[in-house]
Amino acid sequence: MRKLLDNSTRRRLELLEYLNNASKWVSSNELAINLDASLRTINSDIQYLRENWHEYVTLETSKKNGIRLTTPPNSHIQLIYQEIIRNSDNFLLLEKMFFCPTKNLDDWENDLYSSYSSLYRTSQLIDEVMQKHGLELKKAPFHVSNKNEVSARYFFINYFNEIYFVRDWPFDIDRELVNSLSIDIAEEFFGVTYQEIDDLMLVYISYIIAVSLTRQSQGFWVDYKDFQPSLEKYLPVVVGKKGQLQTLAERLNLTYNEALIKDIALSIYLFRKDIISDKQWEHISTGIDEFIDQLEEVLHVHPSDNDRYLIRRTFKAIYLHHQTYPHREDVLFNRYTYSAKLIMDNYPGYSSYLKFGLKQLEEKTDFPWYTQYYDHMIYWLMIKWHNLAILIDQKKRKANVLVVNDHGKDHTLFLANLLQHNFANKAVITPYTGIMLSKESLKILNWDDYDVIVSNFYIPDIPEEKLVLVNSYPSNQEWAKIRYAINTAHQLALELLHSIFSLNDDPSESSGAISSTKESANG
């Protein structure tokens, strides 16, 4: 939906994301090349970010190093995306159109203090976005329509879920009552208490209910031909244990009857499970189980029965949601992509396996586990597999770090002790305590024995990627450099992961590699 942003805002957002994803300083030339912009434009955008988004991010500039982005402790980059949407006339029109679908385009001129020509251009952009989501934008009156009403609803469900989430509530509907009904539906469907269900899912179901009731009150209903006898069992579920649905309907002046209840049941993606054939559901379940088994065997970490249940439940929920709405969910900010990037940086071996394992699963089940949902998978597996991050860390080889200092043995030991205190779980720290009268004194050392060399002076013989220069007492920025170098070297001890998966993009070949590995291990 970035199509709804003006060119300058879209470019600045790309600049922000590039800097945020970078793990080190970035030069203006690199930004200009990768963002296809002139140096003048890049410098202008940097100045804009400093002046307008300084509450959320800090931009450091250095003639020598380039540009680096950091976020204050009390901020998060996602706040910028919310700020952009709040200040966008295009998104404002989209939202107003949802809540008032009876107006023509020219009726919005006075309400939005905008000319008809400007509104018309915005409507063209909205129409392009709608078409990509399989929807149609009607002009008289100005509203979103589709033969599949559920698709229209899920477009707005995803919109409101990202923009407002738990922070605000744009509907004139009792939120607590909606949340109470959401909890009842989830508890009945999964057969567990709401404490065992993700808040993300509960909030999402609340938006399903709110958007569905709003669309009903506007005269947009789901086609009842889609209702199948297998869904009958869910009708008492959507009513709520305390009759919350009836109360909500009456407050919206809706006629509470079986048609309304069936409409809500058809809108909840989880219930699609009973529309899918038993054969297909078994095929998906088997594929998921085989994927978890393979991940367990390759990483040599073992999920508990409850972990396995939660992973399967999450995979299946994603599958059911895709059957209901197969389009991208995010508006501007994809929380899964953001989290996945951090996980990939810290657990490259794990990420490499998932890439190939999900490609295999996608091929077996004809479902875009990797193509469309890789970011979701890498995030949810880390969350649902209890202590997976810790278990993987325990499998990693510690980085070998050499400390060299020209201030004497005592200072070298002092610096080594600081590093030991901060990185004992990730690195083996070795202080150089030999005589240090000149650089030639270091010729007895074999730099290949070390992953990282921390020094307070430049040593020309050391590969650039290994050397970290610091002051006698490291500054905050220098600690960050040390941390990055050690994290980079602190990889999985399972070198096999890289040889099997990182050099091979063919899922079938990676499958063969796994089989060969098992045979050699057993042989």
Automatic annotation (TrEMBL):
InterPro entries cross-referenced by the UniProt entry: BglG_antiterminators (IPR050661), HTH_11 (IPR013196), Mga_HTH (IPR007737), WH-like_DNA-bd_sf (IPR036388)
Pfam family, one: Mga
Sections of the chain in a coiled coil: none
Protein keywords: Transcription, Transcription regulation
Record flagged with keyword Transferase: no
UniProt-recorded name of the protein: HTH domain-containing protein
